[in-house]
Amino acid sequence: MENSKTTTFSIIREFDAPREDVFNAFAEAEALNEWWGPADLKNSVVSLDFRPGGIFHYKMESNGSVSYGRFQFGRIEPHHLLEFTDSFADEDANVIAAPFEMSLPAAVFYSLSFADGNNGTVFTLTGTPVSASEAETEGFQQIVGSMKQEFGKIFNVLDSYLGEVQKK
Q1: Cβ contact 38:58 at 8 Å
Q2: What does the DSSP assignment read for the chain?
């Protein structure tokens, strides 16, 4: 059982695909267009500058409503490690507050590791709020369960995408 005071969450998943393919699914705009984003929204890449300090800007649409997000990349070790902060953004990729009534951090730091597993790639994601107030940290703690569920759905789409890549 998770400690309710935790400010970090993690997900470990194994994909039946080589590390290179799993990593490249995060590094290529064409791939991200196929799988990234909340499963119940129409998601698309606005721009991708895949380098340390670069930004991945994406658009999410649902029922006439549009919102944006962005990653700002930190460390990138091809096929092994990817670090970035994820934030809500405006149409120009400027960081904005989350469009929800609850208080949430302006940014979450994610570390993704890619390792060889028995049947492909073991993928580990950890997420931690960045410079969050007490109220923002509490808001983050309240949504950890739903974040894990949503990432599970996103990674199911990634798994399907990787299966298609393997067929090519």
Answers
A1: no
A2: ---TT---EEEEEEESS-HHHHHHHHH-HHHHHHH-S-TTSEEEEEEE--STT-EEEEEEEETTEEEEEEEEEEEEETTTEEEEEEEEE-TT--EE--SSSS---S-EEEEEEEEE-SSSEEEEEEEEESS--HHHHHHHHHHHHHHHHHHHHHHHHHHHHHHHHHH-
Provide the residue-wise pLDDT of the chain in tens; the chain has 168 residues. 333 455 789 999 999 999 999 999 999 999 999 999 988 889 999 999 999 999 999 999 988 899 999 999 999 999 999 999 999 999 999 999 988 888 999 999 999 999 999 989 999 999 999 999 999 999 999 999 999 999 999 999 999 999 998 887
Indicate the pTM of the whole model.
Answer: 0.91
Q: Contact, 39 vs 62, CB < 8 A?
A: no
Indicate the CATH number for domain 9-167. 3.30.530.20
Q: How far apart are CA 51 and CA 37, in angstroms?
A: 20
